[in-house]
């Protein structure tokens, strides 16, 4: 028993050492990155005008204060990103689809994420007519996990919304057939939530 | 010999001899079927860049099918709980028995034949039709949805294709003037009917493939659609009976094709020194090979296309063939 | 009709072509050197650095070390080393991180056993698994 | 008047033509499908949840298991996402190796599709011919990565192994061989009247439907949308190659069949050029820290897998594990249109339509 404990101790120590070493290395890498970053930030993104166009279009049609935020996501190939509010999300989406300047006819991706303070739905849209892309995000209160469904606009949102509901518990109102698509109706809890406790710990 | 037996007065001895011969034939046919299956697997394998079976019985797997059948015979016999038990049990027998019954009418050589019937051809077609009943029964009695679909497909298909099959041989009957298979073969002494009746041959070949439920007409057991179709619930020796009946029919149909179109046991000119039995076997193998070859190459038809093809293409062509044959025969006999 | 004939021609042509199947259980499969099979473990090389345990995506490696019996020498010796092949996905990450190449891949891949318990391979077993060892382990 | 009853039929989860554990509950009247409800999730392994506790390098083997017919593209999409976030640029030689590996995988995947699709339609031989060629590709990839399907070959910033000796030559020799075999495929199947009658006009949808249902890959291109991420949003080094995007207008199974077979030809073109341009030497891994920590933020990248757009979304909080990882799995999106296509079709067409979508269940269920 004592010996085992000793071993445990040793193991821990070794792990900690490795961790420390890794951290040191990380620091080096991070600092190197920091040096590069300011230079990069100086020049505006090539997609800035596209974002401006989107925002302008939305403000023209729906008024100001519709969007929570809008920015260029430099980490994601400079994609223009719009953040809608839960109550304006559907309106923005509708405009994105039907406005001729925007005409986002293709829903490439829809998924949710749990960010502990809030949940998020991320939608990646593409317009074949204008050859441009946009990311639409919406932050939802954890207390009221309900946003309008996008299925009436893009059929392709059907299963992804089911999946989001299945794994995160976000309810999409107006979805034609919202069901737990992967896990089955008898599953308890929403696994991708950060506070999810596996029901059967040791399988 | 058979003729004498048939004409002699009934008695226990006759019964015994008949039974003995029947069993003998059964084994002969089973032997053929065994190697028919093996050759099919081997040829298929070779065409598909594989070696095929090569484990049981040497490099050529000569005992593979024997082992397979033995395995099937000793396998557990499962009957679904909600199946219609009596029908489920009797269905393989209904499908299997006619397959052997038709063999009686086939003249393999001028001497080796069991029953020289005046209506041999009609007998073959009539009796082989009974198998359909067995298949439909199997599909229905299994109480399985896939089996039911398979059974229904089989019924529709086999009834539809029976008609062009019969119609295509009417031309031959017209030319020969007889339904007797022996006489049909005799009539081909100089020239085979495949030359005189090429259209009929093609119609007959297609219809016979459909009758045999083989690719491209294997809809009743389409494994990619209906899993296994009518025999999905069958296992062990019951399933073996379906399988064997299928292959016995293949044997019978190939023999019939040989008899009707390829001149039976008649040799090619100048090659008369080769025995008749060998000639028959050669031609028969050729037909079998053709069937296998078709199976390797083609995809499956769809049910509605199959029906359309049968009724709208094959039947009119067969009817036209009869008409033209009759016309030509009259014209030639006039001069 | 022409298409059907062409197809028949193609299958006929293949009848005589060279066969491509493997005679597998009789002849071993030809495998490249890099093939990732069951690991071989060299206990004498191991420095008990725990990196393989940490990198394993399925947590299938367990090891314990002990103090070097010779008090003058530093470092540790390996005591037990187990890989659970029920969950090992042979992803090669353990051999990739190992600084001393004390764990390497072999070309052996046949893991069929009668019981799941036998899939739990210990140090001795992994040490004896010394056939077809991969020659090049690091780029 | 004959009264017919509708019947509920479970196609799958164990069925030879669902290509995995996929269940389709269909309501049929005779052989006509009145309604079809797909049921998925039998192969759900929670990759995204598992990934939240894993380092980026450790996730790569998990991506192998999603679309197991073209694992190289899956490897790539994850590495690409991390690289985009962390601003890592893989060395040239590594990119060439990646492209060669991915294109080989694409050919292998389409070959499997071709073979199994013909198997669905009832022809057995094409399957074996396709696997003959696929085996060669698998063997090549085995030599390269050390595994036949679950390659785990790519790393963030490069690849794990350099090409073994003579390997590039092997790929070079494979291209003309494969072209020759493709000829044979067309001879065997493409002109076959039975095959044509089975697929022409079956399961067709319009361009608008395809876009609306978020279809991608050959399923989208068969309706006339000339869209291929390799060309339209070039990633890796695809802008250095000259190739076409095969497009068809009809949107039926026949069009998809042609799109896929032509894609094989285009991939061969890419392979040919990649082998020619392959750099003599150079590193195969960029200078990356041993433990990769992308900066805080999120990123979504998409690339062209054989089945369509495969995307990877990473939300990072600057730690060595992703905070949230999500894969856009093309099969999952492509399968959505199935109930619409099946309505009013008959049983035999069900298989033709499902097969033409080309799904991999490992990917559908994630």
Automatic annotation (TrEMBL), chain A:
Residues 83-197 form the NADH:ubiquinone oxidoreductase 30kDa subunit domain. Coiled coil: none annotated. SUPFAM superfamilies: Nqo5-like. One of its GO terms (molecular function) is NADH dehydrogenase (ubiquinone) activity. Residues 1-43 have a biased composition (Basic and acidic residues). Residues 1-46 are annotated as: Disordered. InterPro entries: NADH_quin_OxRdtase_su_C/D-like, NADH_UbQ_OxRdtase_30kDa_su. PANTHER family: NADH DEHYDROGENASE [UBIQUINONE] IRON-SULFUR PROTEIN 3, MITOCHONDRIAL, NADH DEHYDROGENASE UBIQUINONE IRON-SULFUR PROTEIN 3. Belongs to the complex I 30 kDa subunit family. This is NADH-quinone oxidoreductase subunit C.
UniProtKB/TrEMBL annotation, chain B:
It is an enzyme of class 7 (translocase). GO terms for biological process: aerobic respiration. Its EC number is 7.1.1.-. It catalyses: a quinone + NADH + 5 H(+)(in) = a quinol + NAD(+) + 4 H(+)(out). It is found in: Cell membrane; Membrane. The keyword NAD applies. It comes from the Bacteria. GO terms for molecular function: NADH dehydrogenase activity; oxidoreductase activity, acting on NAD(P)H, quinone or similar compound as acceptor; quinone binding. The chain crosses the membrane at residues 12-37, 86-109, 121-141, 161-179, 191-210, 247-265, 271-292, 313-332. GO terms for cellular component: plasma membrane. The keyword Secreted does not apply. It is a multi-pass membrane protein. Keywords: Cell membrane, Membrane, NAD, Oxidoreductase, Quinone, Translocase, Transmembrane, Transmembrane helix, Ubiquinone. NDH-1 is composed of 14 different subunits. Subunits NuoA, H, J, K, L, M, N constitute the membrane sector of the complex. NDH-1 shuttles electrons from NADH, via FMN and iron-sulfur (Fe-S) centers, to quinones in the respiratory chain. The immediate electron acceptor for the enzyme in this species is believed to be ubiquinone. Couples the redox reaction to proton translocation (for every two electrons transferred, four hydrogen ions are translocated across the cytoplasmic membrane), and thus conserves the redox energy in a proton gradient. This subunit may bind ubiquinone. Belongs to the complex I subunit 1 family. This is NADH-quinone oxidoreductase subunit H. The lineage of its organism: Bacteria, Bacillati, Bacillota, Bacilli, Bacillales.
UniProtKB/TrEMBL annotation, chain C:
Keywords: 4Fe-4S, Iron, Iron-sulfur, Metal-binding, Oxidoreductase, Translocase. Residues 37-66, 79-108 form the 4Fe-4S ferredoxin-type domain. The keyword Phosphoprotein does not apply. One of its GO terms (biological process) is aerobic respiration. GO terms for cellular component: membrane. Pfam families: Fer4_7 (PF12838). Its cofactor is [4Fe-4S] cluster. Its EC number is 1.6.5.11. One of its GO terms (molecular function) is 4 iron, 4 sulfur cluster binding. It comes from the Bacteria. Belongs to the complex I 23 kDa subunit family. This is NADH-quinone oxidoreductase subunit NuoI. It comes from Peribacillus cavernae. The lineage of its organism: Bacteria, Bacillati, Bacillota, Bacilli, Bacillales. The gene is nuoI.
Automatic annotation (TrEMBL), chain D:
GO terms for cellular component: plasma membrane. Its EC number is 7.1.1.-. The keyword Zinc does not apply. It catalyses: a quinone + NADH + 5 H(+)(in) = a quinol + NAD(+) + 4 H(+)(out). InterPro entries: NADH_Q_OxRdtase_suD (IPR001135), NDH1_su_D/H (IPR022885), NiFe-Hase_large (IPR029014). GO terms for molecular function: NAD binding; NADH dehydrogenase (quinone) (non-electrogenic) activity; quinone binding. Residues 120-296 form the NADH-quinone oxidoreductase subunit D domain. It is an enzyme of class 7 (translocase). Pfam families: Complex1_49kDa. It is a peripheral membrane protein. Keywords: Cell membrane, Membrane, NAD, Quinone, Translocase, Transport. It comes from the Bacteria. It is found in: Cell membrane. Belongs to the complex I 49 kDa subunit family. NDH-1 is composed of 14 different subunits. Subunits NuoB, C, D, E, F, and G constitute the peripheral sector of the complex. NDH-1 shuttles electrons from NADH, via FMN and iron-sulfur (Fe-S) centers, to quinones in the respiratory chain. The immediate electron acceptor for the enzyme in this species is believed to be a menaquinone. Couples the redox reaction to proton translocation (for every two electrons transferred, four hydrogen ions are translocated across the cytoplasmic membrane), and thus conserves the redox energy in a proton gradient. This is NADH-quinone oxidoreductase subunit D.
């Amino acid at each position: 028993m004592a010996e085992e404990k000793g071993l445990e101790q040793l193991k821990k120590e070794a792990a900690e050492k490795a961790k420390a070493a890794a951290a040191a290395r990380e620091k080096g890498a991070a600092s190197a990155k920091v040096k590069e970053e300011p230079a990069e930030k100086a020049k505006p993104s090539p997609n800035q005008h596209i974002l401006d166009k989107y925002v302008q279009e939305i403000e023209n049609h729906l008024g100001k204060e519709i969007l929570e935020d809008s920015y260029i996501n430099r980490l994601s190939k400079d994609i223009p990103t719009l953040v809608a509010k839960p109550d304006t999300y559907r309106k923005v989406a509708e405009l994105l689809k039907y406005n001729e300047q925007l005409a986002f006819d293709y829903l490439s991706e829809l998924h949710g994420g749990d960010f502990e303070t809030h949940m998020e739905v991320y939608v990646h849209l593409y317009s074949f007519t204008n050859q441009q892309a946009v990311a639409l995000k919406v932050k939802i209160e954890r207390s009221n996990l309900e946003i309008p469904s996008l299925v009436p606009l893009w059929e392709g949102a059907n299963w992804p919304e089911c999946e989001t509901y299945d794994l995160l518990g976000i309810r999409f109102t107006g979805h034609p057939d919202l069901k737990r698509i992967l896990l089955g109706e008898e599953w308890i809890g929403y696994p991708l939530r950060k506070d999810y406790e596996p029901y059967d710990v040791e399988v | 010999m058979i003729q004498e037996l048939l004409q002699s007065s009934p008695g226990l001895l006759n019964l015994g001899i008949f039974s003995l011969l029947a069993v003998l034939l059964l084994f002969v046919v089973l032997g053929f079927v065994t190697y028919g299956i093996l050759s099919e697997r081997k040829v298929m394998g070779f065409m598909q860049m594989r070696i095929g079976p090569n484990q049981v019985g040497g490099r050529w797997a000569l005992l593979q099918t024997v082992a397979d059948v033995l395995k099937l015979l000793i396998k557990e016999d499962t009957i679904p709980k909600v199946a219609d038990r009596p029908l489920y049990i009797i269905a393989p027998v209904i499908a299997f028995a006619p397959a052997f019954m038709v063999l009686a009418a086939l003249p393999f050589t001028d001497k080796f034949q069991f029953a020289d019937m005046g209506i041999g051809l009609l007998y073959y077609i009539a009796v082989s039709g009974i198998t359909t009943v067995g298949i439909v029964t199997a599909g229905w009695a299994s109480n399985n949805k896939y089996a039911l679909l398979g059974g229904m497909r089989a019924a529709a298909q086999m009834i539809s294709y029976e008609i062009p099959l019969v119609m295509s041989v009417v031309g031959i009957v017209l030319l020969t003037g007889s339904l007797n298979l022996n006489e049909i073969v005799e009539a081909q002494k100089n020239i085979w009917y495949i030359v005189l009746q090429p259209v009929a041959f093609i119609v007959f070949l297609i219809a016979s493939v459909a009758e045999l439920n083989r690719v491209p007409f294997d809809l009743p057991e389409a494994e990619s659609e209906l899993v296994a179709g009518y025999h999905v619930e069958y296992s062990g020796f019951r399933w073996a009976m379906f399988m064997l009946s299928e292959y016995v029919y293949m044997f019978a149909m190939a023999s019939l094709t040989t008899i009707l179109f390829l001149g039976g046991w008649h040799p090619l000119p100048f090659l008369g020194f080769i025995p008749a039995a060998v000639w028959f076997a050669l031609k028969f193998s050729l037909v079998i090979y053709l069937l296998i070859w078709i199976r390797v190459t083609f995809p499956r038809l769809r049910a509605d296309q199959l029906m359309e093809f049968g009724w709208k293409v094959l039947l009119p062509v067969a009817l036209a063939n009869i008409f033209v044959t009759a016309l030509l025969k009259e014209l030639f006999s006039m001069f | 009709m022409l298409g059907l004939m062409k197809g028949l021609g193609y299958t006929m042509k293949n009848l005589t072509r060279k066969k491509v199947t493997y005679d597998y259980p009789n002849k071993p499969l030809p495998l490249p050197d890099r093939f990732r099979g069951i690991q071989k473990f060299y206990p004498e090389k191991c420095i008990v650095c725990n990196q393989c345990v940490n990198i394993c995506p399925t947590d299938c490696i367990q090891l314990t070390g002990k103090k070097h019996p010779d008090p003058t020498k530093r470092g540790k010796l390996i005591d037990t080393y187990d890989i659970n092949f029920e969950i090992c996905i042979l992803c090669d990450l353990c051999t990739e991180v190992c600084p001393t190449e004390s764990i390497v891949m072999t070309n052996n891949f046949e893991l069929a056993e009668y019981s799941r318990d036998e899939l739990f391979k210990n140090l001795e077993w992994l040490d004896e698994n010394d056939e077809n060892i991969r020659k090049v382990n690091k780029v | 008047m004959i009264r017919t009853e509708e019947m509920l039929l479970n196609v799958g989860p164990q069925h030879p033509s669902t290509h995995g554990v996929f269940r389709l509950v269909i309501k049929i009247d005779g052989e006509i499908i009145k309604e079809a409800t797909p049921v998925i999730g039998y192969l759900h392994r929670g990759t995204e949840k598992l990934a939240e506790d894993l380092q980026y390098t450790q996730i790569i083997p998990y991506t192998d298991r999603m679309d197991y017919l073209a694992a190289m593209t899956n490897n790539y999409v994850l590495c690409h996402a991390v690289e985009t976030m962390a601003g890592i640029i893989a060395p040239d030689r590594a990119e060439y190796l990646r492209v060669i590996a991915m294109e080989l995988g694409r050919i292998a995947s389409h070959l499997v599709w071709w073979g199994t699709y013909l198997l669905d339609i009832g022809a057995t031989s094409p399957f074996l011919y396709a696997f003959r060629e696929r085996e060669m590709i698998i063997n090549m990839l085995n030599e390269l990565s050390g595994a036949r399907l679950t390659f785990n070959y790519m790393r963030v910033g490069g690849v794990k192994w350099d090409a073994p000796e003579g390997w590039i030559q092997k790929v070079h020799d494979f291209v003309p061989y494969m072209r020759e075999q493709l000829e044979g495929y067309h001879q065997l199947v493409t002109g076959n009247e039975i095959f044509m009658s089975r697929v022409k006009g079956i399961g067709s949808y319009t361009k608008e439907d395809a876009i609306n249902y978020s279809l991608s890959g050959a399923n989208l291109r068969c309706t006339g949308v000339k869209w291929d991420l390799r060309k339209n949003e070039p990633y890796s080094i695809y802008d250095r190659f000259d190739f076409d995007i095969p497009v068809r207008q009809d949107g039926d199974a026949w069009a998809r069949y042609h799109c896929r077979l032509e894609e094989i030809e285009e991939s061969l073109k890419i392979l040919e050029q990649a082998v020619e341009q392959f750099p003599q030497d150079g590193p195969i891994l960029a200078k990356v820290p041993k433990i990769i920590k992308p900066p805080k933020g999120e990123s979504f990248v998409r690339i062209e897998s054989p089945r369509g757009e495969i995307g990877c979304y990473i939300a990072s909080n600057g730690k060595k594990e992703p905070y949230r990882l999500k894969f856009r799995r093309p099969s999952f999106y492509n399968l959505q249109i199935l109930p619409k296509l099946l309505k009013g079709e008959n049983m035999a067409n069900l298989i033709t339509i499902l097969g033409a979508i080309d799904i991999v269940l490992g990917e559908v269920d994630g």
